[in-house]
Structure formats: C-alpha cells, structure tokens
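Let us work through a complete example step by step.
Step 1: write down the sequence.
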Amino acid sequence: MEPEITILYAEDDPLLRHSTSRYLSNMGFHILEAEDGRQAWELFLEKKPDLVLTDLRMPVMDGFQLLSRILAESPDTPIIVISGVGTLPDVIEAIGLGAWDYLSKPIPDMSILSHAVDRALDRLKLVRTSRDHQQILEQTVRERTRKLADELKERKKIEQLVTNAKNEWERTMDAMPDLIALLDTEQRIIRLNRTMATAIGLTPKEAVGTKCYLCMHGKKCPPEKCPHLQMMQDGQPHTVEIYEELFDRTFEVSVVPRFDVDNITLIGSIHIARDISARKEAEHEQKKLHSQLLHAQKLESVGQLAAGIAHEINTPCQYVGTNLDFLDEASHDISKLVAQLQTLVQAEEQGSLSPRLFQDARQALEDADWEYLSTEIPNAVTQSRDGIRRVSSIVRAMKEFSHPGSKEKVAINLNTIIQTTITVATNEWKYVAEVKTDLDPDLHSIPCLSDELGQVILNMVVNAAHAIAEQLGGNLEGSKGTITIVTRQDEKWVELRISDTGAGIPEAIRARIFDPFFTTKEVGKGTGQGLAIVHDVVVDKHQGTIALESEVGVGTTFIIRLPKNG
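Step 2: predict the structure and record it as tokens.
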C-alpha cells in the first residue's frame, strides 16, 4: 500500500481554500491549509508535504517569497502556482523561481486541477526515482571507485612485492656459490646467476641463448653423461659428478625438469652445478684418516691381544720344553743302556761272554726303566708336535690378522676370517665363554677387505665376551656363557650371526650403539669406536647391513649380511 500523499495549500480566500481542499481530500489526499505565506512556510517546515499549491498574492508573505524559501529548503518539492491576479510576467517569474506548473483561478473545471496534481506527482515520482537511481549510481560509482582504488593500491602493493621478490630472488641466486641456469630443451641458456656468469667469463646478456656445454665444457657437443639429455629422455631429475678440465674442478651437476604452466609440457631444465672439489678432497682425507684409525685400532687390538697370545704360545712352549728335558734325560739313560749292550755284543764277538756282563746289561736295562721310556717317549714326541702345531697356528693366525690387507676387495671365504679371529682372540673369551661355530661348509667366497672384516669379527667377539663377563659378574668360577657364530647364505647374501648369552642391550640405547665414541663401559675400558667401525666397514665399505636382536638379561645377536657380488 502506497503512503498517503500530503498537499500543502496556501490561499488567503477561505471559501476557495476550503472548497478546493475538500475536492482534493475527496481524491484521497491529505490536505494542509494555510491562510498566508508565513503559516504555509511553518507548516512546510513541520510537516514536509509532498506537494505545495500556493497563491501568489497573500498577506504577510506572498507566494513568490514562499516559493523561494521552499525551493531553497527542498529543491525537488513540486509547487503549483494558482493565482488569478498574475499576469504573464508573474507566470514567468514563478516558473523562473522553480514552480512546476501554473493554474489561473477561478479554475473553470476541477479536473484541470486534478490533472495538474497527478502530473506533478508523476513527475515527482520520476524525480525521486531518478534521484534514487542517481544516488544508487553515485553510491555504486563511489564504491566501485573505492574498490578500484583499493584494487589499484593492492595491485601496486602486489606488484611491489613481486618486484621485491624478484629482486630478492635474483640477489639470492646471485649470492649462491652454485652455478645455476635455466635451460630450454635445446640446452640454450635462458637465465643464469652471477656466479655462473662469472665462472664462464660472460655477462648474463652475452650468455643468454648460448649452449650450456659450450660455456661449461668448452666443447661443441654435450658430454657423454650429460644429465640434461638423460632428463629429456625420461623426464626425471639426474645428478652426476663431472671433472671440468676447463675449471680444473670437480662439480656435482644436478638437472631438474622444468615444466610449462600446465605442469605437463616439458620446456627445459634447471641446471645446478656445485663445486665439490673441497668435499672430494675432504673425503679423500677422511678415507686416509679412517684407514689410519682402523690400522691404529688393529695395532691397539694386537697390543691388547699380545698378553693373551703370549700366554697361549707359552703354554705349548712350556710342555714342549718339559718334554725336551724329559727326552734329554731319557737319552742319557738310553745311551748307558746302549753302551752296555755294545760291550755285551763285543764280548760275544770275542768269545769272552761272562755272567757278569749279562748281569751288568740287566742292571742297565733296569736303571733305564725301558718299559716306562718306551711308552712316554712317543707321548712326549706327540705332545711336542701338537704344541709346535698350536704355536704355528697361533703365529699364522696372528700374522694373517695383523697383516695389512689389500686396499682393493679380493674374494675370500668368511669362514677362514672367522677361524683366524677366534684363534687370536682365544684369551679374550676362554675364561668366560665357550665358542660354538656352525659354519656353512659350502659358503661362497665374497669380494671383501679381509683385514677390515677381521677387525669387525674381533670387535664383535670381544664385545660378546665382555657382555657375558658383565652378566656373570664377579663370580666366574665354574660357569661360562656361550658365544655362537653361524654363517649361512642365500642367492644374494652371505649372512653372519654372532650371538652371546650376555647382559643384553637396553632398548633405550640400541639406536646409538653404532655412534662414534658412544660406550657404556667404564672410563679406560672402551673408546666407543668398536661398533662405529663395524658399521662403517659393513655398511659403507661393503654395502652390507647390520641388525641386532637383544633381550636384557638373556643376550644379543648381531646379524651381518654381506652381498655376494661385493
């Protein structure tokens, strides 16, 4: 429902004012009546009518003054002038001031008034609609302008951020020591950092469009193992080490595929060359130091084993010496017996045998205790031979263990290394454990560094003996643990298991036992290098694996797997 329209009618003639107001009221309008201009102005300010009808000639304030004030206050208010006095100049002045229409009174037909009112209200509606549209348009323009200003500001901010990021990225790339370039599919340089430009002796502008192999290698074709060509074939990243004669340096060259915005089309590569000459030199020095460390530990092991080995050699040497003393003493008795027999034989040859000579011979035989000597002399010889063989075995094992092995891998049977190591380490384990072996007789020889694997097995056996000693505590009388060494093989691997019935390894430290200098032993009883060397030799130098199974209070098993093909 549309709101009621209010019309202010200013007329000093009461009869005309009332009759006209009644007519308009019957049309459905709300009428405000004023008898002069001042009263009309006060009602206008108070009621804010939609339409004003006014006479021109009124007391106190005439229609022209009212018209001027209303239009100054509300320019869009429609005003229809109804006057019978005016002349054409009055009409022109009223219209000039802003009146919307002009009717002469008396009005001959009230439908003229009705038509004028309807027309003014329609125009008012159009004005208000237009004004609303104009306001909406202006508001829209203001909002759009504000948004555009904000967008422009944001765009400038983003552009500045992009510019800053680009500059920062370029500065970052230029600051990096690596040689970095963007290549197209034909290996032409698209962009490069300052480091690479400086290395190849060109400005970035000069380098763009040049083939990378011409700049980097000084050749007219790519190198044999060009990572860019490999990447173009399979679309995968590639990394190679290349010694560049042009720079007399070794580089690690990584090439990563570069795709278009669709993330599908391959458009080139990112080429990163890192100078690793210092690292290669450091690796070489590290290998030398590691070799020296391994040799030092072997010498340390030899020193630690020396007392035990001396004891192991001393025991057979002692009973060899005792047997030699016995054989020396027996040889004197036998010499006397042989001399007496020679006298008896000479007497028989000369025909001068006498009972006295037979009596002396029997006495010499009794003095020599030949029955005893005939049994013990062979035993002494056998024992002495066994002792010599034992000494020879220990010396041979020690020689094999301490001899510096080849720097290159050679095929050898792991069982042989195990037997040698068990022999040289006998004194380390024999007081606390029994060593049981279950070695595969058909074990495949594997390419290995025999001396370093010998050190591995020694470290493992010695650690096993120490673990058993810890488990037994101070009471070593009558009870021993067991060290079990087993070898097996499958199609690809030779497996070595070394088990002990020692104290076991707590789960909290299992992840650290291969760390250099980590030890749970008392100060002076361990350097923490043993298992670190084991890990380095097995994993890094032989590409093998090492794992463990352990239960505290029960024991530990180390499982070493070495590849058959080296």
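Step 3: interpret the result. The first helix runs from residue 14 to 26.
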